[in-house]
């Protein structure tokens, strides 16, 4: 198979591959402070944090973390996946994002109530 055809085939496979969606927290290991967010692609968040840590480029992360990143360094932060969501075959991206927003809100409430350390 020619390279161009194989590349196109791989691109189609990548676009059609299901992504792991979910709610996550990026947390400072020293203070316990962090942010809770959700995404339709958890792998991209893992990659962003890894990139930030290996290149010392914290600007790729959420700006709400900037002050603590300056104070403690990017290596003080870790990713915690709080909940993984399996997108349903009949679910649109808009529906998935709405479900993730609801779960994110529930996780924020749990954390604020002290149910999660």
Task: Give a written overview of the molecule.
- There is one protein chain.
- The protein has a single domain (18-112), classed as GIY-YIG endonuclease.
- Strand 1 (21-28) and strand 2 (34-39) form a beta hairpin.
- The mean pLDDT is 89.
- It has helices at residues 3-16, 42-55, 66-72, 93-112; strands at residues 21-28, 34-39, 77-85.
- It contains four helices and three strands, in the order H-E-E-H-H-E-H.
- It is flat.
- Helix share, percent: 40-55%
Gyration radius, to the nearest Å? 17 Å
Our count of helices gives 4
- Name the beta content range: 15-25%
Low-confidence stretches: none
Annotate the secondary structure layout.
Layout: H1 3-16, E1 21-28, E2 34-39, H2 42-55, H3 66-72, E3 77-85, H4 93-112
Antiparallel strand pairs: 1-2, 1-3
Question: In short, what is this structure?
Answer:
This protein has one domain: GIY-YIG endonuclease (3-Layer(aba) Sandwich), CATH 3.40.1440. It contains four helices and three strands; from the N terminus they run αββααβα. A three-stranded antiparallel β-sheet has the order 2-1-3, with helices on both faces.
């Amino acid at each position: 198979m020619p390279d161009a055809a194989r590349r196109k085939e791989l691109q189609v496979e990548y676009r059609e591959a299901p992504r792991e969606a979910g709610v996550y927290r990026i947390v400072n290991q020293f203070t316990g402070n962090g942010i809770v967010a959700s995404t339709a692609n958890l792998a991209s968040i893992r990659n962003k944090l890894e990139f930030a840590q290996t290149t010392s480029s914290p600007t790729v992360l959420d700006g709400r973390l900037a002050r603590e990143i300056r104070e403690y360094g990017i290596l003080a932060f870790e990713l915690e996946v709080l909940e993984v969501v399996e997108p349903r075959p009949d679910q649109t991206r808009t529906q998935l994002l709405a479900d993730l927003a609801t779960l994110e809100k529930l996780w924020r409430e749990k954390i604020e109530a002290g149910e999660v350390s």
